[in-house]
Amino acid sequence: MKKNMDQLFFSLFQIGVSINQLNKQSEKQLKLSMVQWSLLKTLVEIPGATAHSLAEAVGVHPSTLTQTLKRLERKKYIFVMSDPSDSRKKLISITRLGKETMDATSKSLLNFSEEFTVIQKELKQALQQIPAEA
Amino acid sequence: MIPLLSKNSLVLLESFSFTRTLYAFDFDGTLAKIVTKPENAFMTKTTESLLEELSTLAPVAIVSGRSINDLKKRVHFNPQFLVGNHGLEGLGNNNASLTKAQAVCSQWVQKLKKMKFESGVEIEEKTYSLALHYRQARNKTNAKKQLLQSIAELTPEARVITGKSVYNLLPPGTLHKGAAMLHLIEKSSAKHAFYIGDDDTDEDIFSVEYSAGQLMTVRVGQKKTSHAKFYIDRQAEINRLLKILIGFHKKKANG
Lengths: 134, 255
Ligand SMILES: [Mg+2]
Prior knowledge:
By secondary structure, chain A is mainly α. Helices cover about 70% and strands about 10% of the residues of chain A. By secondary structure, chain B is of the alpha/beta class. Chain B folds into two domains: about 170 residues, HAD superfamily/HAD-like (Rossmann fold, 3-Layer(aba) Sandwich), CATH 3.40.50; about 80 residues. A seven-stranded parallel β-sheet of chain B has the order 1-11-10-9-2-3-4, with helices on both faces. In chain B, strands 5-6-8-7 form a four-stranded antiparallel β-sheet, covered by helices on one side. Chain B is globular and about 60 Å long. The complex binds magnesium ion (MG). Magnesium ion binds next to loops of chain B.
């Protein structure tokens, strides 16, 4: 049992590494990392989201988004303004450029088929190592 | 409140066009200029054709205190939604509640017609609600006083929505514009909505809690106490706004 769990942890770590690599490659080649892409995708669904509602929608803590949001704002993919009825609150919207970049990235994701195949293999392996009762 | 037709606000407005958004408009004072006689209120040809064009690109609703029959005389194309009588008509309300509203209104009218008012006070029967206009009364202060007194005497007690030189009387238990707006969003299967209106009856919508999505609220004319988040300066800016909305959606269609 213990040996199996060690294997599982190791596999999961490997998946993490592969996803990280894919993320970096995606940002380099397609202008958007997967994290950035996911945030933009969510912003299309929530025009004028607060950092809080955005974090809730993608299922992370708001503080973990700060850096990514800053990057997206620098690239002019998102726009941040004060809430007209509460200036302490910030409203985040996706810009036209952000929307176009996101759409283009969605199309180009298919170029990463090799990386996807690797991750797929690793996932299958990990799944086999998860104990049945877990 | 901040201006809608400013660079920052427009970025937000544009992002509404990336997803299914319902664009809803009040009629008097928003799509049509306020005139002395309400029966003379019409959209300009330009406004109407711009609105029609927008309705080919996104769902459009006109939400008014006027009756549907009255609205139909003023709107010469078919927007996706025409909502009249502050939400009583046009949302598929059940007949029983309409019949009841109608009975209450005729009861009120009978009583009101026996009362004395300043000359120029006008009782408009809208089948399911009443509008008591005093725009043309010579002594407006007096007319207001008389009207409020007589409204207080009505049974059952009326729900009063104050408009521009008008008191709207709705039978108890009927929808207000805010609730109507929520129904409308659901019916249009839009995720988000945009609403623009010009007076107190629209505050029901401006202050509505819409937790399922985003609601962008705009007032015609800046007012400190309004719950709307954005404003345009005057009714005459409606064409510019419509052109901007059309532009956003056309860019999307091309892109
Ligand atoms: Mg109005």
